[in-house]
Amino acid sequence: MNPSGMQRTVVAIKKYARDWRWNRIAYLLILPALIGTAIVHILPMISSILISFRDLDIFSLQQWTKAPFIGLRNFIDGFNPVTTIGQRYWRSVLNVLIYGAVTIPVGYVIGLGVALLLNKKFVGRTLVRGIVLLPYILPDSVTYNVWRFMFQSRIGIVNKTLLALGLIQEPLVWLVGKYSMIAVIVASIWKGWPFGCLLLLAGLQTIPQEVIEAATIDGAGPWQRFRYVIFPYLKPVTKTLLLLNVIWNFNAFNQFFIMLGSDPGIQTDVPSVLIHRETFQNFHFGLGSAMSLILVILMMIVAAVYLRTLRVNKSMEE
Amino acid sequence: MAGILNRKRQQVLGRITIYLLVLLVLAMVLLPFLWMLSGSLKTTLEIQGADVMDPAKSPRWWPRTFTFENYIEANNTVRILDYFKNSLIISIGTMISGVLLSVMAAYALSRYAFRGRGVYVMSLLMTQMFPGVLFLIPYFVLFVWFKTLTGIPMRDTYWGMILTYTSFALPFSILMLRNYLESIPREIDEQAALDGCTPWGTLFRIILPLSKPGMAAVGIYCFIMAWNEVLFASVLTGQYTKTVSIGLLEYITTQQARWAQMMAACVIVSIPVLILFTIMQKQIVDGLVAGATKG
């Protein structure tokens, strides 16, 4: 090692030593959480990758390290649209995209509308603000079981209401077959919009009243005020909210599993339910791991495209 | 004069519209909730005998005969009170370990600019993105493996579930609490240090008491998260630790649909979260907003 290299090393070591002396407590404090996250996040993630290369089933489960190594077989099976499972997998990805494409915008619009409403002054506003959060705080298992009850064909209130309104002539079968996606979407929107409303309302409250008053004096109508004054303030919240929603909806499990059960048929299969079934009912642990890794990659692509689009928009605005 | 009157009338109309819209929103939110309550008070005969095509037997909002029997029967057909106890133990365990770990990590993140801080925060955010099933499979496999190697059971145990839920509550808890701690001025730390407080003393005597509301919010977040979780509970719990989320599904079997009892159980299951939320509404809302937007 040449002298200057040595010097540099010494300087680096000194820097690390100083960092350690200064921040010793920080490291000690963060250590439990760090070890915790390492054990519970990083270790499973690595094992997930290792499992996905193996043919792990109920017999080899006791010691997964002894399961036969089969290379990329699981990924090929999961990816290949020709096999039954591959076909169902891609269909499930399509299903969840359709589900998100309806649920997210509708939920956002309702949340935004209600947030604008709750930002106005009226008697009992605080109480109403608390009540609208009810769908959000009710446990998923409760919410979706109640909706499952409401969507029952013969005894459900949804069919009764639709019949009374004359929208249908015969009671529909909601939870099996072609209408089941609609049922899940309705329940998910009901459950999901208050969270958006909460964030948007917080965003609305950061807008200085003078700005809106100034716009009114300048003759801006309600729509112009919203479009050019209010909405720009809500943009950062909207971006975060949509990103969170894209991620959450891509991983949707509870609503489908509770309302439709673990094998809802190809029209309403979503990746999480499919993987859950393939792994814990058919005991194809390797295949399940491979499919969930593909899911992560797909989601990262979606998130990256989303973030890229935002950045492009931003640079165009500037 | 006419102009003023016109304006006045417009204002009144505007008021009325607002109240009508508020009523509409309330109806949208409350109707499913009321359907749950009404279902829990109906007799099984009324629910099972209902028929949307027959006006005489059509399902109604107001029960034909009121009964509280479902609330008692709900525990006879499904061991819902046992599941309730399991959920309570797991949720409180998650709450305690979640708050302890996240308060330490959050303090370090908010007060020290140590190496790897950015990477750590980034990795916390990343874990929020991944689908639950990605973790569920290795969890299950590793739990079984651990049992094979050491003989210590992990699946279907309280500590296994508490460990699992703490790990999933941690990232958001840490970020939420860090935001809270950052709102406590650093001058307070500095003053404490000048007065001869050690860093540990500052944490325990100054910062922790000041951050009680933030810790409460995080604790309740952990509790509610554990109480509501479905995916991991569906695989990792069994007869000893089954939680309410999974237990609710047992009312409907291929032989029998006990909707009235299920609705009663739904009411019981909702009570703890509703109480917690009502008490701590402001802290939870502030914490959620900060955690989601500043993270």
Structure characterization notes:
The complex is a heterodimer of chains A (318) and B (295). With 318 residues, chain A is mostly helical. Chain A folds into two domains: 3-42, no CATH class; 73-317, MetI-like fold. Chain A has helices at 3-52, 73-79, 84-118, 125-131, 134-137, 140-150, 157-164, 180-204, 209-217, 222-250, 254-260, 271-280, 285-317. Chain A is flat. The model of chain A has no long low-confidence stretch (mean pLDDT 87). By secondary structure, chain B is mainly alpha-helical. Chain B has 13 helices and no strands. The chains are: A mainly alpha (318), B mainly alpha (295).
Distance between the termini of chain A: 50 Å
Percent helix of chain A, as a range, is over 70%
Give a quick account of the main beta sheet of chain B: strands, pairing sense, barrel closure. Answer: none
The N- to C-terminal Cα distance of chain B equals: 54 Å
Number of helices of chain A: 13
Residues in β-strands, percent of chain B: under 5%
Q: What name is given to the CATH topology of the largest domain in chain B? A: MetI-like fold
How many strand units of chain B? 0
Please identify the top-level CATH class of the largest domain in chain A. Mainly Alpha
Structural class category of chain A = mainly alpha
Order of helices and strands of chain B: HHHHHHHHHHHHH
How many domains of chain A?
2
Return residue spans of chain B where pLDDT drops below 50 for at least 5 consecutive residues.
none
Quick structural overview:
The complex is a heterodimer of chains A (318) and B (295). Chain A is mainly alpha-helical and 318 residues long.
Note the topology.
The complex is a heterodimer of chains A (318) and B (295).
Chain A: H1 3-52, H2 73-79, H3 84-118, H4 125-131, H5 134-137, H6 140-150, H7 157-164, H8 180-204, H9 209-217, H10 222-250, H11 254-260, H12 271-280, H13 285-317
Chain B: H1 2-40, H2 44-48, H3 69-77, H4 80-111, H5 117-129, H6 132-150, H7 158-182, H8 186-194, H9 199-210, H10 212-228, H11 231-236, H12 244-247, H13 259-294
Helix pairs in contact in B: 1-13, 3-13, 4-7, 4-10, 5-7, 7-10, 7-13, 8-9, 10-13
